[in-house]
Amino acid sequence: MRHLYLQIYVALVAILIVFLFLMSMAWWLLRDRDDRIALDGLALLVSEVVPAQTASPGEIDASINRLSEMFSARITLRAQDGTLLSHAGEALPAPPPDWQGSGVRHLRGTGPVATLRLPDGRWIVATRDHQHRRGGLLFAILLLAFTIAVGAYPVVRRITRRLENLQTSVDALGAGALDARVRVEGKDEVANLASSFNRAAERIEKLVNSQRQMLATASHELRSPLTRMRMALELLERENRPELRDQLKKDIAELDDLVGEILLATRLQAIEELERSAPVDLLALLVEEASRFGATVSGDAATVHGDARLLRRMIRNLLDNAQRHSGGSEVKASVESIDDATNVLRVEDRGPGIPEQERERIFEPFYRVEGTRETGEGFGLGLALVRQIAQRHGGDVRCLSRPGGGTRFEVTLPVEQSRQD
Fold this sequence. Notes:
By secondary structure, the protein is an alpha+beta fold. The chain has 3 domains: 126 residues, Beta-Lactamase; 78 residues, Helix Hairpins, CATH 1.10.287; 144 residues, Histidine kinase-like ATPase, C-terminal domain (Heat Shock Protein 90, 2-Layer Sandwich). It has 9 helices and 12 strands. The C terminus is likely disordered.
């Protein structure tokens, strides 16, 4: 049986059948004992209604008729030896000699009868037309079982249908349909599974699209230095020009930097946790890097928990970006602790600034503000790496307008990171 819903449904029906069987067995095993106790008590009550053996036949017949009307049953009174004394309706057979007391038994040709042994030894034999009631009870049980079986099917089918929809979406995602999603229905475990799948599919789609975009853009970016290198080599073959060699070395270094940034960006997208993590003095790191760019540093001592090499790369990219766009003005950097909860790293310049509508897009891989692409300044990966590194350390980065003109970059890193061991 390959379908899950059929397995669940058959298991449910099987459990129902076993339950009915056990209930039937319990009823058959316990009913005789319970009936005997009840009938012994009923015999005592009936003995108060039926006259003694010395009463006239008319009195005895009248009492038997009253009992017959009262219980709507055929009733026969017999002596201890089985002799017929009175009856209402068709006379019932005498109990066999091996019957010792009250009970419900089956007589051949009559079906189930109730036998009451009176204190004086006489027998009351009674029966009612129970067949229709027993048939009605059996019909009710079967109807109940059928109702449960029918009612369980849509419930089981609804659960498994959602699993089938999830399987279809998983197959579609595996086949390359990155936009495959599952409709979340209900609030149970299946709904939680569907939500988890949608989140995973969304992350996979973003990663793959980002990789595709990065690959396409990287291919375009690689053409420029490769073309310059090819032309320089051709010229070097014809004439000895030292400036061409210098330019060739520069292009090689530029190409090496681009490949390094692409590899780092790809690795940061792939990892879930930092490969190295240790306490890092953020202010000391900033001072070291700022000395290479001639930037002014101020602020408070702050320790964060993370990868020192990645944090150094983040600071270097911010300072390099600020220096290239500062227009020769001074670059300032600082570290500040806010409310003992967040460390803020700021890098500021007095350059032309960045339009508000561009301040979020500059963190996209290979995106460059209009005008910078033509000048060949950078590859558009530096700030994307800054955001990736900040996010891997539990923080983020934003671009703001600096009061008085220029640009300010703020990187927030939670202090809690520094308290983890």
